Amino acid sequence: MVKDRTTLWKIVILAVLSILALAAVLPLYWMVATAIQQPTLTMQFPPEWIPSNPTLDNFRRFFARPHIWNWTLNSGIVAVIVTTLQLFLAALAGYTFAKKKFLGDKFLFWLYVGSMMVPDQVTLVPLYLLMSKLQFLNTYKGLIAPGLAGPFGVFLMKQHISTLPTELLDAAKIDGCSEWAIFQKVVLPLSKPGLAVLAIFTFVGQWNGFLWPLIVTSSSSMRTLPVGLTLLQEEVPMQFALLMAGATYAAIPMLVVFLAFQRYFLEGVTVGALKG
Asked: Average of pLDDT values for 207-227?
């Protein structure tokens, strides 16, 4: 009887998870299906869930628009640079907070992490004024600088590095390793799962960033892809096939990054879940 109930609960849970997974995947499927659909059929009702005459013409028209490659390049430069530098800075700060003791270390850590509770909108005006005084407006520096020091990254890396055995670091110090050598040759290699999680979150956040790039840039050549797609929506209203082609194109790098770091990501999200 107990075994039957357990089996029934497993079936129910599997059914619920399947429904939730379908609900999550359905918008993505509809985006791709609309992108390869004939433009004249996007507004028909009932809609065609499986396009009868798929076409890539929507992508050709999308790439024929001006500044598409500029927007892509800008998004790529910002996302890659911010991700790379934030991984290094977050790992460095996380290592310091996790393994080094100094006056006020806990206070400084929680003060910095507590800044995550401050909405981004609150800091927009002072951040814009700071970028203006530094003459970073409408430049890569203005797009990149605010994303370098993320409290979430420091918190994540501190929690991950805290799980590393202190005895291992002490052994490396006894062998004559400097602090930089310990960080570079011991801490970083053992922190790959945490770094992978942070890399995915940071890259996706920067690639999808909209509000700050919209505010800090003024010329079309400096816009990022999300901002450019919004402007494109104003230029070609109601052309849903073209817009969905752009959205599908913008989603590809995020999918590639996730697949590239998937193995480390699965390890990273389970750090601390098991002991022993």
From this structure: 92
Alpha helices in the chain (DSSP H): 2-35, 57-63, 68-99, 105-114, 120-133, 140-144, 151-162, 166-174, 179-182, 188-190, 192-207, 211-216, 225-235, 240-260, 262-268
Residue range 146-175, pLDDT digits in tens: 988 889 999 999 988 998 888 888 888 888
**At a CB cut-off of 8 Å and minimum separation 6, what does 267 contact?**
192, 193, 196
Tokens in use for 172? 């490396």
Predicted pLDDT at 154: 92
pLDDT at 69: 92
User: Nearest Cα to 244, choosing from 62, 114, 103?
Assistant: 62
Residues in contact with 178: Cβ distance below 8 Å, sequence separation at least 6, in sequence order:
none
pTM for the predicted model, two decimal places? 0.84
197 token code pair: 């999680």
Omega within 30 of 0 (cis) for the link into 47? no
**What is the secondary structure of 16-78 as a DSSP string?**
HHHHHHHHHHHHHHHHHHHHTS-GGGTT-SS--SS-SS--SHHHHHHHTSTTHHHHHHHHHHH
Question: Structural domains in the chain?
Answer: 4-12+14-59 (no CATH), 61-268 (1.10.3720.10)
Per-residue b or e along 82-114, where b marks 16 or more CB atoms closer than 10 Å to that residue's CB: bbebbbebbbbbbbbbbbeeeeeeeeebeebee
